[in-house]
Amino acid sequence: MTELYYKPSPDETLQSVLEIFDTIIGVILFAGIVGSIADLVANANKMKTRLQQRMDGLKQFMSYRNLHTEFQRRVVEYFEYEMSKRENMTETEIRGYLPPNLYVQVNKYVQWIILTKSPLFKNCEVPFLKDVVAYLELRDFGPNEVLCFRGELNREMFVIADGHVKIVDHNNTILRTFHEGDVIEDRSLIWFENNRYQNRKNYNVISVGYSQVYILLRDDLLRVLSDYPQCRATVVSQAELLQREADELSDDEATVEMSGFDGSTLEERLLAVRNVLAALENTVNVNFKKFRGIRFLQKTSTGFKYRLTALERFCLDSNSSP
Fold first, then answer.
1. Could you give the angle at which helices 301-320 and 266-289 cross, rounded to 10 degrees?
2. How far is 8 from 15, CA to CA, in rounded Å?
3. 251-276 residue pLDDT tens
4. Which of 58, 74, 185, 322 is 20 to 30 A removed from 270 (C-alpha atoms)?
5. Using an 8 Å Cβ cutoff, are 188 and 154 in contact?
6. Where are the transmembrane segments (predicted)?
7. Taking phi first (over 0 means left), then psi (-120 to 50 degrees means alpha), and beta for anything else, what does residue 85 get?
8. Structural domain of residue 75, as residue ranges?
9. Which residues, listed in sequence order, are joined to residue 176 by a DSSP beta bridge?
C-alpha cells in the first residue's frame, strides 16, 4: 500500500493480476487494523461511559428529589472512585455468576490466610474454615463512614480487603488504625455473661477513605459452629482468652457463654420455641385426661369441638374455684 505509486507499471497480464491481488490484500489488512484500533478505543471507554450514564441519571434523580448538597457530593465522589478503579465486574456480580463451591475456592485464596492468622480460629479444622469463608460478605464504605457505632451489640467481625479503617473512642481519639488483611472484632462474636460492656462495642469503627471490608455475621458463625462441636469449644476458649487479655471480662463472676435467646442463632431460637410449645401441649393433654365423665370420641370434627368445649369448661371451673 505504501509503495503503490513507487513501483514500475506492470507490462504483462500476470504482473497486473499480481499487483491487483497485492493491493486488495493490503486494503483488507489496513481496514482490519483500523477497525481493531477503533474497537480497542470503544472498549476502553465502555465502562467509563456506562458509569457516566449512571451518574447523569443519579444527578437527575437527586435534583428531582431536592437532596441536600452533601448527599449529592458523596454520591458523585463515590462514582468517581468507581470510575478510577476501572473494574468491569464487582465482587458481588462475580459471586452471583460462579457456583458456590467454585466461589469459595476462588475466594479462599484471598481470605484463607487471613482467617488462619486470626487468633479466634486458631487450631480449627480446615472444613470449618471453608464453611466460614462461604459466609463472608464484601461491602464498600466511603470516607468517614461508620462501620459500627459504640454501644451496638457485637454482631459482626470485619476483615479489611482494601483501604484503611480506624477505631475511635467517645472522645474521637484514634485508638488504632487497621490496614488491608487485618481482622477486627473477631473475639467479640462470642458473648459471655460477665462481659464488662454487656457484649457491646466500646468504640466506633470508621472507614478512612474508601475501603472494602468482608463482614462475617455472628449468626452465620454460630450456624457453622453448630456443625462442628469440637471447633465450637476451641473458639469459645480462644474468645474467652482474648477478651480476658483485652480486660473485657469481669473477674467477679464466672465466665459463662450466653446460651439464651440473646446468644443463640435463629434456628436455636425456633427450636426453643418448639420445645416450649411441645411442653405446653403435653400439659394440656395431661389436664385433659383428668376430665371425668367425658367419652373420648374418634378424631372427627365433632369430637374435636366436644373436647374443646370440655377444656373451656374445665378452665372456667378451675378459675372460679377458691
1. 80
2. 11
3. 765 566 665 444 455 666 677 778 78
4. 185
5. yes
6. 20-42
7. alpha
8. 1-88
9. 167
**Count of C-beta atoms within a 10 Å radius of residue 195:** 19
**Rounded CA gap, 113 and 175, in Å?**
25
- Whether residue 285 is contained in a domain is answered as no
Q: How far apart are CA 160 and CA 304, in angstroms?
A: 60
How far apart are alpha carbons 191 and 181 in whole angstroms? 24
- Cα distances from 299 to residues 206, 208, 256, 304, 306, in angstroms, run 62, 67, 47, 7, 11
For every residue of 209-274, DSSP letters joined together read EEEEEEEEEHHHHHHHHTT-HHHHHHHHHHHHHHHHHTT-B-SSS---B--SGGGS-HHHHHHHHH
What is the residue type of 10? P
Q: Are 264 and 272 in contact (CB under 8 A)?
A: yes
- Convert the pLDDT of each residue in 213-250 to its tens digit: 989 999 899 989 988 888 888 899 899 899 988 888 88
> Against a cut of 0.70, is the pTM above it?
no
**Is residue 152 domain-shared with residue 47, that is, in the same domain?**
no
As for how many domains the chain has, the answer is 3
Residue 274, in any domain of the structure: no
